[in-house]
Amino acid sequence: MTAEKVLLVDDEPSALEGYRRLLHRDFEIETTVSPREALSFVNRKGPYSVVVSDMRMPEMDGAELLTRIRAVAPETVRIAITGYTDIETAAQAINAGRIFRFLTKPCEKETLRATIKAGVEQYRLLRSEKELLEGTLSGSVKVLAEMLSLTNPAAFSRAKRVSDCVKYLVHSLGLALPWSVEVASMLSQLGCATLDPELMEAYYAGKKISDSDQATIDQHPLVAAKLLGNIPRMEPVAWMIAHMNTPVTSLAAATPKPMPEAVLGAKLLGIAAAYDRLIARGSTHIQAIQKLAQQDQHYESSMVSKLEGMPPLERSGSEPREVNVSDLVVGMILHEEVRTHSGLLVVAKGQEITPTLLIRLRNFEERKNIASKILVLTAALGAVPAHA
User: Fold this and answer.
1) How much of the chain is in helix, strand and coil states, percent to nearest 5?
2) What is the pLDDT of residues 158-191, one digit of tens each?
3) What's the CA gap between 183 and 134, in Å, rounded?
4) Which of 69, 196, 253, 279 is the most exposed place for a label (fewest CB within 10 A)?
């Protein structure tokens, strides 16, 4: 088994050398006298199972260092060690950095070794829980998304576009895409499943609707949040969706106090959904960005500006062609709406064909309820999806 990586930070080189001699047989040890270098290590060489930091350092104190490490590597277990039995310092570190243990110098060798071993076990538990959680939720999200595609294809299509836009923004901003933000983008339109599809089509087309209908539409993020809030560990996802239409100037002050990741997700969802709505109502790409930029109290301007380089949310190199329903395959992109002969929307334009949707289309076609041929996009040879 590969040794767990442990990072030790102390401004006294002699202390670090002592730690290394004590621990090198049990762990893969890295050391530094610089808190700023420690942050660089976490970003470039991580993940670390455990970070042990001295509390009193001239460049940056341990409380700040461990708090910043928590922001970029929340699963890394953080341990503080100091030569000062300062209750206020200990409380600050524990509350701000969510410290696993707090030790005082001089620290018994076996106490230090045992504490780090306990930290490693805690890290393994957190990782296992995360992998199980994300695996389980990933399957659940796919089921929810599939159900949305069947009950409200237009809403599912919007959710797909919102998700693609969020992924592009995250990539352009140079961020790692947190699983919760990705899930939130995929389920951002879940509340629309409770709405009349014709009402939603009218709203997105910019048609005049009554005040009561507008109030109902405005509630769809809260409906989704309430549904998702019943699922354990989905609280951050529910919060992002509930606050996707909250002005950016009000997000940080929202209650309960949100995690930075949740605030980021709400900002991204708000921009992506607003952009998609403007495009649906006839704005060009540039016009939509300009309109969003004018609302700098509502949307993060630095994120809006990143939309300028976003390509069309279709697969580059795709070629439209007519295909028999019986010849459709998973992964094709619909290049037109599919409606029944009576006008009922079955699938929205731009929707990717999934296994469930393929069954649905074939069932409709067998009953002669839809046309036998559908216009689809198929990637040209060697083409790369725009958001791969």
Assistant:
1) 55, 10, 35
2) 888 899 999 999 989 888 777 888 889 989 998 9
3) 10
4) 253
Mean pLDDT of 104-129: 89
Q: What is d(CA 151, CA 132) in angstroms, rounded to the nearest whole number? A: 29
Number of domains in the chain: 3
Q: Print the domain residue range for 294.
A: 152-312
Is residue 283 packed enough to be buried (19+ CB in 10 Å), middle (13-18) or exposed (0-12)?
Answer: middle
Residue with tokens 């403007």: 278
Q: Are 306 and 281 in contact (CB under 8 A)?
A: no
pLDDT at 234 over 90: no
Contact 387, 312 (CB under 8 A): no
d(CA 225, CA 245): 13
pTM assigned to the model: 0.61
Single out the residue of 105, 99, 116 nearest to residue 24, CA to CA.
Answer: 116
Whole-angstrom CA distances from 115 to 68, 79, 209, 210, 239 are 22, 8, 63, 63, 35
Is 292 part of any domain? yes
User: d(Cα 211, Cα 162) in Å, to the nearest integer?
Assistant: 25
Q: What is the pLDDT of residues 292-307, one digit of tens each?
A: 999 988 999 999 999 9
